[in-house]
Amino acid sequence: MAGKITFTIIKPRAVSKGFAGPILNKISESGFKISALKMLQLTRKEAETFYEVHRERPFYNELVEFMISGPIVVGILEKENAVEAYRRLIGATDPAKAEEGTIRKLYAESVQANAVHGSDSDENAAIEAAFFFASSERF
Ligand code: ADP
Ligand code: MG
Questions:
Q1: 49 lines ligand 1 (CB under 6 A)
Q2: Where does the pLDDT of residue 138 fall: very low under 50, low under 70, confident under 90, or very high at 90 and above?
Q3: Angle, vertex CA 29, rays to CA 115 and CA 10, nearest 5
Q4: Which entry of 72, 78, 95, 116 is 20 to 30 Å from 34 by CA?
Q5: What residues have CB less than 8 Å from 28, skipping those under 6 apart?
Q6: What are the tens digits of pLDDT across the range 52-84?
Q7: H helices of 4-96, where?
Q8: In terms of Cα–Cα distance, which of 45, 75, 46 is closest to 137?
Q9: Using a 6 Å cutoff on CB, does residue 124 contact ligand 1?
Q10: Pick the CATH number of 5-137 from 1.10.132.60, 3.30.70.141, 3.40.1110.10, 3.40.190.10
């Protein structure tokens, strides 16, 4: 059965450009309920752990540097079939390939600085949500 939650990060460049508000608005307008939300700056260790699956990829070190370069906004989003629905809303990893109207098309500047993260499976959504939020921070 498709899960009800996904996890998102609004990445540093999108936050510093003032896009957190517009992105959250787009998320709400698209029918997601925001059930947890906060701003924070990742430590290097946290960023390395979060992107552990990409450790062998050539862009790993740069990605970690980028993700710790400034504050991010993290959130848990609820909707039927949340993971797939949110991946559709954010668009392709490379914003040049993202469809019109998607968050990455609207707010990303490059493959690395692609505005947002979205979980890729129900299992990872649960792991990522628990990584950032205590149960007392989830509503
Ligand atoms: P997605 O975020 O769409 O799930 P991936 O999980 O493949 O994409 O990659 C994780 C993140 O790593 C991307 O969101 C992006 O910030 C960065 N990234 C992916 N591919 C590249 C690349 N070729 N060059 C630089 N950064 C990349
Ligand atoms: Mg991914």
A1: no
A2: very high
A3: 20
A4: 95
A5: 34
A6: 999 999 999 999 999 999 999 999 999 999 999
A7: 12-16, 20-29, 44-50, 60-67, 82-90
A8: 75
A9: no
A10: 3.30.70.141
